[in-house]
Amino acid sequence: MTKLKGNGVRFRSITKPFIDTTKKSSHSEFIIKIFAALAQMERCTIIERTKADLESTRPRVKFWKHRKD
């Protein structure tokens, strides 16, 4: 958000008027930071789940690779 803001990028939601960074408002800055934190948390959760799934799949893949019919 800092890079975007530095380049003059602003955001205004059409359906949610409280999400508006075109005006100087502490409320809108707070909401944007909350959304950014939630997005980061979701990203980390997806990474953790993907790694766990890959680790749980490895033993099964090895079994099927070495199995001969």
TrEMBL record:
A UniProt-annotated Pfam family: Resolvase
Position of the signal peptide: none
An MF annotation (GO) of this entry: DNA strand exchange activity
SUPFAM superfamilies: Resolvase-like (SSF53041)
Protein name per the record: Recombinase family protein
Segments forming domain Resolvase/invertase-type recombinase catalytic: 1-61
Transmembrane segments: none
